[in-house]
Amino acid sequence: MHILCVVLLLAFLVLGHSSSALNKMWEEWKIKHHRVYDNQTEIIFRRAVWQKNLGLVLRHNQEASAGKHNFTLGLNHLADMTAEEINEKLNGLKLEDPANFTNGTFKEVSGLSMPQGVDWRKNGLVSPVQNQGLCGSCWAFSSLGALEGQMKKRTGVLVPLSPQNLVDCSTSDGNHGCKGGYISKAFKYVIRNEGVDSERFYPYEHKNGKCRYSVKGKAGYCSNFHILPRGDERALQAVVASVGPVAVAVNAMLPSFHNYRGGLYNAPGCNPRFINHAVLVVGYGTDRGQDYWLVKNR
C-alpha cells in the first residue's frame, strides 16, 4: 500500500498539470536543448528518462520549499540522460596514484589570517563557464581554470585557455582525451610543452581530435604545481585565499548533482570516497551559519 501511495504521488507531481501540459514541456525542452533523436525507440526511452528526472526535480523542490533542503533542482541539458550515462560520458576524472606524491608536494601554510569569504570572480580571475558536452574532459577544464587565474595574476589579463589542446595533445602524458584524464598530468603536459594555446586560437570541439598546438596561439604556461593533502579543507581554504582558484576532485555521481540549479548543495548520500569529476574552487564563504565552497563546474 505504501509503495502504491508513493507511485501515485509521483504520478500526481509529474502529470498533475495534465498530459497536454507535460507534452508541451517536453517539446519546449527539446527545442531549447536542440534534441533530435534517431528513431521512435530512442524517443520513447529519452522521454521516459526525462519524465523520471522531472519527477525528481518536482519532488525535491517541494521538499526544499518545506525546508528539507538548502538547494533546488531544475531540468537542464542533461535531463534526458540517466545518471549512469552522465557518469560514464561526462565525469572523466582519473584518480591520482598517491604513490606518485609520497614525498608531499604541498608546503604547509600556517600563520595566515584568512578572510571570512573569498570570490575570485570579483577579481577577474575566473573565465566564463563552458559546456563540456558529451566528452569526459572535466580534468582539462578544471586544471586550465586554475592556470587561467594564475596567468591573470601575473599578466593582468584573463585569457580563456584551450581544453581542446589538452584533450588532443596530452595522451603521451597519460591522459585519454574525452575518455578521461588527470589534473596532474594536464599540468605536466603544459610544463613539458612549454605552453598551452588560448581557447580562441584552439577552440573546443566536444570530441577527440588531432593535436594542432601552435606556439602562435600560446597564451599560458606553467613551471610547477602542488598537490594538496587529500580531504584537508583547511589547507584548501588557505590556498584558495592566498593563491587563487584551485582544481579539485569531487563526487558527482548523484542525480541531485546532475540536476542542481541553485543554493548550497549538501547531499547526505554523497560519499567523499567516491571521486569521479574535476571542478574549480573559486572561493568560499558562509551563508546563515553554513560554510560553503564556491565552485565553477563545466
Descriptive key words:
12% strand, Cathepsin B, Chain A, disordered N terminus, four-stranded antiparallel β-sheet, 37% helix, Helix Hairpins, two-stranded antiparallel sheet, 298 residues, 2 domains, alpha+beta, 9 helices, 8 strands
Helix/strand layout:
Layout: H1 2-15, H2 19-32, H3 40-65, E1 71-73, H4 83-89, E2 118-119, H5 138-155, H6 163-169, H7 183-193, E3 196-197, E4 218-220, H8 233-242, E5 246-250, H9 255-258, E6 260-263, E7 277-287, E8 290-296
Antiparallel strand pairs: 1-6, 2-7, 3-4, 5-7, 7-8
Helix pairs in contact: 1-3, 5-7
Explain how this protein is built.
This protein has about 300 residues and is of the alpha+beta class. Helix content is about 35%, strand content about 10%. Strand 7 and strand 8 form a beta hairpin. Helix 1 packs across helix 3 and helix 5 packs across helix 7. The chain is globular and about 60 Å long. The relative contact order is 0.15. The N terminus is likely disordered.
